[in-house]
Amino acid sequence: MGIAASARSPVQWPGLDGAAERRFSLVVLGDVRIEVRASLSTVRFTDLTSDRLAYAPARAVVSGTAVNLARRATGYFRRVAVLGKVGDDDFTPVIRRELRRLGVHDLLGVEHGMPNGVAVMLRDRPDGDGRGVRLLIAEEDAPDRRLAEADVRRAAPGIRRADALFTDGYALLAPVSRGALHAAARTAREAGTAVVFDLVPHDIDARLPLVDVLPLLSLADVVISEAPTLARLLGRPAPVGGAEMRELLPALDRAVPGRPLWLLRFGASSLERVLAHQRERLLMEYASGYGEGVERTGFGDRLAAGELYWWLSSR
Question: Using CA atoms, how far apart are residues 101 and 136, in angstroms rounded to an integer?
Fold first, then answer.
């Protein structure tokens, strides 16, 4: 792995705002959607007892897990590509234009005759700790759930040439995309391309048993997860502080084969601190840079992009 316990953290170098020298190539496999976002500065969800009209900043963006990560990754990586499935409607050229604008290579498959997936993200008025609650509504029958092994085969040359393949757990939630995710990870491993797995959604433990997640965890070189999510998936109580985090590590090593690098987020909102661990070795613990006054939307992608560049640079 090459990371010493005394090494600088990824927040120190390359930092959260991009790298001075863009290196490496990255393929990001995940959702591609149109998302409507709004933040409600005067409304708490718990106060709503009837219909309400609220005026607030709102916008529609090209989004989804793959696009969100790729958008941040372009500040670090020389080449970034998105592998996903989109629909066939008026939003399709909008999606492709946005990828071109970002400088992201398009490895998209098209589900002909099907509309693009839509998501709605609402965040209510911040409470005492300044966070507020996020409500994310994702269209259930979206094209990304039909990303197939055939789409992966078409993109296989790009996966094999890449330094890393970044994936996430949303693809595990549908049988067809689950098969595609496994195929992409196997293709990467056979070619020596690093496999990075982001363990989302954060309630994946309520949606899938460990046996359905374990094959991807076992294929991964790097796993990113909120510590409470991973603990619940293993049937353990959610850790709160650093001491409880360290108690989780032996259970992790017993449950998952191989030697993945675990980047475990924890803290008051499961994002303030990160513990880096690799089988029987605590590599380092560091502050993520998230705190009061920092925009939460997109922060996890900023952090993950920098961490991946940091890890690839250390290999």
Answer: 26
List the structure tokens of 165.
Answer: 């393949």
pLDDT (tens digit, 9 = 90+) per residue, 208-237?
Answer: 999 999 999 999 999 999 999 999 999 998
CA atoms of 136 and 158, how far apart (whole Å) = 31
* Of 305, 231, 269, residue with least CA distance to 131: 269
DSSP, collapsed to helix, strand or coil, labels residue 198 as strand
Cα Rg for the chain, rounded, in angstroms? Answer: 19
What pLDDT, on the 0 to 100 scale, is given for residue 1?
46
Q: In sequence order, which ranges of the chain are alpha helices (DSSP H)?
A: 65-73, 91-102, 149-161, 175-191, 204-207, 210-219, 227-233, 242-255, 299-314
pLDDT digits (tens, 9 = 90+) for 101-156: 999 999 999 999 999 999 999 999 987 666 788 899 999 899 999 999 999 999 99
> Given 3-state DSSP classes, what are the helix, strand and coil percentages for the chain, each rounded to the nearest 5?
35, 25, 40
pLDDT at 3 over 80: no
d(CA 145, CA 151): 12
Give the pair of three-digit tokens for residue 186.
């196997």
Alpha-carbon distances of 48 from 54, 123, 206, 214, rounded to whole Å: 11, 14, 27, 40
Other CB atoms closer than 10 Å to residue 38's CB: what's the count? 15
The number of helix segments (H) and strand segments (E) in the chain equals: 9, 15
**Maximal C-alpha separation, the chain:** 57
Q: Give Cβ neighbours of residue 254 (< 8 Å, ≥ 6 apart).
A: none
3 state DSSP class of 241: coil
